[in-house]
Amino acid sequence: MAVRRGTRTAVLEAPRRLGVLERPLPPAGPEEVVVRIAATAICHTDLSIYTGEHPGVRYPVVMGHEATGVVDAVGAEVAGLRPGEAVIINPIISCGRCDACLRGAGNLCRSAGLFGREVEGSMSQYVNLAARYVHRLPAQLPLADATLIETLATVRHAQRRLGIAPGDSVVVLGQGTSGLLHARLAVLAGADPVIAVSRTRWKLEMAQGMGAHHAIAASVASAVGEVVRLTAGLGADVVIDTTGGAAATMAAIEMLRPGGRFAPYAVSQECCNGFTTFPIYYKEISIIGSRALTREDMEPSIELVACGKVDVSGFVSATYPLARAPDAFEEYERNPGKVLRIVIDSSAG
Ligand SMILES: [Zn+2]
Ligand SMILES: [Zn+2]
C-alpha cells in the first residue's frame, strides 16, 4: 500500500484568483513518473491564462509548462529514468494515435493540450505525468536556468522549419526571451548578418551578447529602412517576428527581399487591417508557421545549453517561492516589458 502524500499546489480558480492549496499526491501510475518540481518559468502564455485573456481556458487551472525538477518516483513500467535524476518536462500533450501524431508532428495533434493549461501543470511541489514527457538533464545545469530549454526547443522548432542557411540575412523583431534565443540560434546556423530589433536598450545589449551583428533601437514599423540599408539595399532573407500583431506583419513583409521567408512566431489574434496578399504574390514570400515543439526538438536543445553554445544564464529576472506565486504574477503583470522570465521555486515551499 503506497503511502499517501500531499503536495502544495498553486491553483488558479478564476482569472486573477490564484491560491496555494495542500492536496493529496497520487502514487505514480505504471507508465508515470512523479517529479519533484524545482523551477517553473512564467511566460506570456501563463500571464494570459492568469488575466483571463487566453481563449478557451477552463478554470480552475494549475499553470506551469516551462518546468524542471528531479525524479521522485517511477512507475513499474518506466524504463530509463531513476529517482534523483534531474529532468525537464516536454509540455506538449499529444494522443500518439491521430494522423498528426503518426507523422511525428505531436505538436499538431488533433487533441493536443498543454501541460499547465488543459492538463494540470508544474506550479506545485510534485506532479505525476507520463514518462514520455520527461527528458533527462545533465546534472550540472542549474534547474532555474534550465527551464529556458523549453522555450529554446520552441524556437528551434521554428528555425528548423525556416531552414536558415549560412550567409542568410536574418532579422529578429523583438528581443524578449524568444527573440534573444532566435538571434542566438540564427548566429549558430551561420546567418550573417543577424539583425536584432527592439525599443529596449538592455535587450539589444543582450542580443549583441548572443552574437547579433546589428542592433536597431526602434519600433518594428520604423526599422524597415535600416534593415534595407544593412542588407545592402536588398532586404532580408528571413524575418522572424516575436512581437505579434498587424504592424509587425506588414513591416516584416516590407523588409523582406523578393523570395524571402517570414515566420510569424509570436502568438497573435490581432486582425491585419489593410493587409492584402499582393506582396506575397509579387515578392513570392513564404509565410512559415510553427507551433510549439516536438519531442525531437528537446534533446538537441538540452545539448545546446549543456555544451554552452546557448547561454541561458541571465534570463531569470526574479525568483518567488511557490507560496508567493500570486505576487509573482502581480509583478509580471505590472512590468511585462521589464522581465524576461520570472521563476517560481517549488523547492522553497
Ligand atoms: Zn511558455
Ligand atoms: Zn494525436
**DSSP helical segment count:** 11
Mean pLDDT: 95
Bound small molecules, by name, code or SMILES, are: zinc ion
Query: What's the CATH architecture name of the largest domain?
Result: Alpha-Beta Complex
Q: Tell me the domain tally.
A: 2
CATH superfamily of the largest domain: Medium-chain alcohol dehydrogenases, catalytic domain
Shape: globular
Could you tell me the CATH topology label of the largest domain.
Quinone Oxidoreductase, Chain A, domain 1
Say how many strands there are.
Answer: 17
Give short descriptive properties of this protein.
28% helix; seven-stranded mixed sheet; binds zinc ion; 11 helices; six-stranded parallel sheet; single chain; 349 residues; Rossmann fold; alpha/beta
